[in-house]
Amino acid sequence: MRTLLVLVLTSILTLFSTYTYAGTVIISDVSIEGLKNVKLISVLSVVNLKKGKCYSNVVARKDVRSILEMGCFDNVEIRFDNISGNLTFVVTEKPYVERIAFNGNLEFSEGKLKRESVLKEKNYYDFSKLEETKKKISSLYGDEGYADCKIEVYPSTDLDTNRMTITFLITENNRIVVEEVKVKGMFFFKEKEILKLMNTNPGKMFREDIYQTDLKSIEMFYKSNGFIDYKFVSPKVVYNDVRTKMFLTLNISEGSRYKISSITYDGNSIVDSKEIEKTIKFKKGQIFNQDKIIEAMNLIYKLYYERRYTCAKIVPHFNKDIDGGIVDVNLSIEENSALYVGNIYIGGLLSTRDQVIRRELLIKPGEVLTNGNLHGSIEKIYNLGFVNNVEHQLFATDNPDVVDLKILITEKDFSGKIGGGIGYSSDNQLVTSAQIQHPNIFGLGQKLSLLGEFCKKKQDYEIEWIEPYIFDKNMSLILNAFNVKKNMNYSSSKDHTYKENRIGFLIKAGHKINNYMSLLFGYSYEHVKLLDISPSLELKIKEELDFAKERDKPSSIFTQFIYDLRDYVFNPSRGSIHIADLYLASDLLGGNVNFVKGIVKSKWFFPTFWKFILSVSLQNGVIIPYKKNQSKIPIYDRFYLGGADTIRGYALRTEIGSLKGSTIMGFMNIEYKFPIVFYKGRELIQGIIFYDIGGSWGNYCNINLVLGSKKENVHSGIGFGIKIMVHLIPLKIEWGYGLNHEKAKRQSQVYFSFGDN
What we know:
Keywords: Cell outer membrane, Membrane, Repeat, Signal, Transmembrane, Transmembrane beta strand. By secondary structure, the chain is an alpha+beta fold.
């Protein structure tokens, strides 16, 4: 009897430990079944249901979704025992791609084809990526004229290990060159007018993508000139016996040409009719132009997006009178209601943590989905610097006014970069540089960079660490240490020189006021030494040099306000950035220098046509000593214009402003940038044409805004250069020509520099 009582009590206690007082089941164990290549800890890290927690069907469904979003599994099922509390996730792994091989490739190396492949070795099989890889390789061959190239795929999987080998069998065939192009069927336009629209020309290799673009160009040309009924009839294609030459004949049907008889629109209640009328740039009696129709529709869409009606739909209707050659244009507007965001999912991450992407989003669950906050979020993700591509998908939910948003990330294929270079500049002559950088340490979005620059006149070592979100809050932290040794020239000859050694550090922390504005505060400390001063220079500015030797420890606190509206921080095409810096150097901070320095910078970017960008930047600064017994500013903290970062075409320090340096300065840079080389959709090399103008002065009484060659005059320069995107740090090589030189001064300068002005 006693034994029976013990068994009953034990059973009751077991049941009590499994169920809470409310009847929900406590999880006693969590296991994963079906793993072959994925590590157990990787799966458990994305699961919210843990041992000791209450089981929930809602959380379980989210866990299944999280496991699937890892991209390693085809299927996930849940088994839960209500009695024991054992929870089991039964997974079906995708095959692990161990090797990708290529056979039959003669034109391209296996390494080149692997780099083009979207599906990578040491990743999990994805059919869509396999198909995309086939398209990319086919396109690669097509770009070289191999229009007949055939690609077959043979996957092989070891069922025991679930590891896969994928073999691409490539049959290249011959290159095809366009021998002849003819166009038939036109009456209104001449054949040569149509041929001018095409890039598929005799003597060029045939490329399917260019050919399809040509067909679209011809269609848009006709539909923008009133031919609404234009049609392209199947072409006639003839080859020579060995399929190396193509004879192409395009057959088109122009149809009738129409003029606009009337313009109407309906369905609008949210947007006023007068606002819609302003968007319509075409008028009654004009030749029908499809481009202007599309332009008007896009402007109307913008009006609705501004009012958060992101589901608005505009359907154009054309009522044609063929005999009269006229058309009635009607824009039918379906306003629909605003869409709200339900869940937001992040997919495609390999090394980056989910929160690093999520904290950049301008839109949160429960908020209205707009074109602005969606594309603004995508821009901010790109600005992280380690993301190669961003795509988004919307999924319907049970509520017609709510959609789930999924953001798919493709990370750049590097964990860190080591680079270097050799260049020449007029200031520093032969320059050697080296850099090590990582834009995403530990997948946390933290940045680390080490930069070294070495030449006859300069040695520069710098290390910087950036934490953009301290504890995932809108607070950033920047730590910087530097050691710079350089020869300072005060004339084109070598008789006015000294050596300047600066070693120090900077700490900066701040708060993001909103998505575009930041306010930062910081502290910096330096130790500056002036060595090997030439006798001739000491005679000219002895008092300033003596003061600088005594006041060799600038210690300052500063504040910085940033207002950044650029679309892409590494290579902006539109927007602007405005920065205001205020420094206070004081002996109360452990130094021996006392002054206030203010610098204001603004830069605007304007897209012109295609990818040509006009940028205009302004910078102004002033330094004021604030102690009566210290009315001077050390020469190493004054303003000096000229060189790569201010007014190009002049040597630094030698021609603009006082030999002693200036306490007031201002300059403007106007640049016109255009792409030269693209790589994987990004601009790798840019061309630059520039015009610089500005001046610097010792005090307000000396300001002279007249262009001239005197030191107190405003100086200007013109030039050109190239910018090479070396990972995330631009490398610039520029030639500048000064327009206001003194006689016997060098007229032009060559600059080799890292970063943007």
